[in-house]
Write the structure tokens for this entry.
Amino acid sequence: MLSYRHSFHAGNFADVLKHTVSTAIFHHLLKKDKPFCYLDTHAGCGAYSLSSEQALKTKEANNGIKRLWGRKDLPPALANYMSQVIEFNAQKELKYYPGSPSIAQQMLRENDRLFLFELHPNEFINMSENFGSDKRVKMAKKDGLEGLIANLPPRERRGYILIDPSYEIKTDYQDVVDTLIQACKRFSTGTYALWYPVVNRIAIKTMERELKQSGIKNIQLFELGIEADKGETGMTSSGMIVINPPWTLMAEMRQTLPYLAKSLAKEDKGFYRIETLVAE
């Protein structure tokens, strides 16, 4: 039940998409002086070595961040994301990969706040070591979906919420939709991003349909695939469903996703989706 470890997958193509979108959202929120909060429901430890036993076993970063490292032709949103990876490494060689909490920690200001939730015992210990000295960060070893609802609305009345479970539990697909509906009732102006893996396309289509029927407005979808769906034999694409996205995000992804689909594809089989699920 708690077997998932992101260290096996750090820096893969799904991380590239997730963190490019998140970086774009942070850049938008940072344009205003007023503080905001960031809440990560499944934070993991937040920092990963690309030379660890787990990373070397899967080599998923080879088809993600390692293909982009050192390129000079990146679209603006992708270049902004890459600058965070470069900052995290603090040298010219790519050795480490920043998880979502580390990217947030690098970008957020002194008066902004971070809420990090993680249930896995070892991951929580490592997360505590990585972020325990940062007074802006509040951490809890508890279910992140429950933690999200308990902390809404934030006192800042501005926020970005990232929901990215492993989906190793089948009920996660329904739970994230139910949580988003409840969260939007408590904090309707927040920006929410729901990450999903495409292993079972039917489950993703069900999530999309339920969100369309939820009454929530202003929902966009951004998906990156490196090969065609295989039908529950492995993740071939992943996506971000964003509620209340920055007005600039759609245009940024129209530049970014074609580049990523071409650069990270397996045997030229890459594809992408950019859709408005629900208008404003």
About this structure: The mean pLDDT is 93. The two ends are 37 Å apart (CA to CA).
